[in-house]
Write a structure and sequence with these properties.
This protein is of the alpha+beta class and 147 residues long. 42% of the residues lie in helices and 21% in strands. It has one domain: Beta-Lactamase (2-Layer Sandwich), CATH 3.30.450. It has two helices and six strands; from the N terminus they run H-E-E-H-E-E-E-E.
């Protein structure tokens, strides 16, 4: 009976270690994906901002062929853009809190990063901002607005 109890105790302990390792692996995967998307958004945003400044009468989505992107850059199809009155917006849907945190950590303009809530930019550091977002940006999207 003591052998059976020891077996169950060891099995329970190993099971708990396995579950903890799985949780750690999932957290690392989410963090890694957020870092990849964040980097993609920052590079893409810079190109869209430069385009919007040079073409301030353009409204709507800008095709990648119109942007000056690095030759090595691979645009993620889930990172989108829109331009309105010389302002550039790059966004990712669906919202990921890890992505917002990663953009904020990356040194991005913290007042221009957040989530679309009711057509306004919600920033986790300052709350609802004065930045009004174009209707093309879906509710709940992570947004990195251009300056």
């Amino acid at each position: 009976m003591q052998v059976l109890s020891a077996f169950f105790a060891i099995s329970l302990f190993l099971g708990m270690i396995f579950v903890q390792n799985q949780h750690t692996l999932e957290a690392n995967a989410a963090s890694g994906e957020a870092a990849a998307i964040s980097g993609n958004m920052r590079i893409y945003r810079n190109a869209v901002v430069n385009y919007a400044r040079a073409h301030n009468s353009v409204t709507g989505s800008v095709m990648d062929t119109e942007l000056t992107l690095p030759v090595w850059f691979h645009h993620r199809p889930d990172v989108q853009n829109t331009v309105t009155n010389g302002q550039a917006y790059v966004y990712f849907t669906p919202a990921q809190p890890e992505l917002v945190a990663m953009l904020l950590k990356s040194g991005a303009d913290t007042m221009r990063v957040g989530i679309n809530q009711g057509g306004r930019l919600y920033n986790p550091l300052s709350g609802i901002t004065s930045v009004r977002l174009p209707e093309e940006i879906p509710e709940g999207s992570v947004v990195y607005a251009g300056g």
